[in-house]
Amino acid sequence: MNKQILCPTCNQENDQDVDFCVHCGAPVGFISTIDPIKQIRAQGFMYRRVTRPDRFILYVGAWILFGIPLFSFVFFLVHGGILLKGLSALAVFFLGRVLYRAHKYYFKAKRNRKNS
Ligand SMILES: [Zn+2]
Predict the structure, then answer these.
(1) What is the Cα–Cα distance from 41 to 72, expressed in whole angstroms?
(2) From the CA of 83, how far away is ligand 1's center (Å)?
(3) Are residues 60 and 77 in the same domain?
(4) 41 and 56, same structural domain?
(5) 52 has which bridge partners?
């Protein structure tokens, strides 16, 4: 009989030999952190968790991860030289987009929870 392991993200049981949870896609087990391709998949999962927050703590995490660099680049955009201003404009655009999406997703998820 196959041993079952619990997913740390959704608490569902998985076969011991899986690398990613069959229920939510979270990395489980050790191989997902060694294999480079699986590592990319695991990082992708973490990125999606942060950019699609469904809990307040993940929403705060998104602001800490992307908000602090965003405000630093806004500072460089105002006070930097021409090259730094160019690079900062790009960074502000991408970080702003990530945060905008996280914000939109969090409040959409919150609204869906209230309605159900
Ligand atoms: Zn899971």
Answers:
(1) 29
(2) 44
(3) yes
(4) no
(5) none
Phi, psi of 50 (to 5 degrees): -80, -35
- Do 42 and 75 belong together in one domain? no
Cα of 16 vs centre of ligand 1, distance in Å, is: 13
**Shared domain check, 59 and 42:** no
* Whole-number pLDDT of residue 68: 94
**Predicted model pTM:** 0.65
Whether residue 36 is predicted with pLDDT greater than 70 in this model: the reply is yes
Cα 28 to averaged position of ligand 1 atoms, centre (Å): 8
Spatial distance between the Cα atoms of 19 and 26, rounded to a whole number of angstroms: 9
Domain residues for 13? 1-50
pLDDT on residue 33? 61
Q: H/E/C letters for each residue in the chain?
A: CCCEEECCCCCCEEECCCCECCCCCCECCCHHHCCHHHHHHHHHHHHHHHHCCCCHHHHHHHHHHHHHHHHHHHHHHHHCCHHHHHHHHHHHHHHHHHHHHHHHHHHHHHHHHHHC
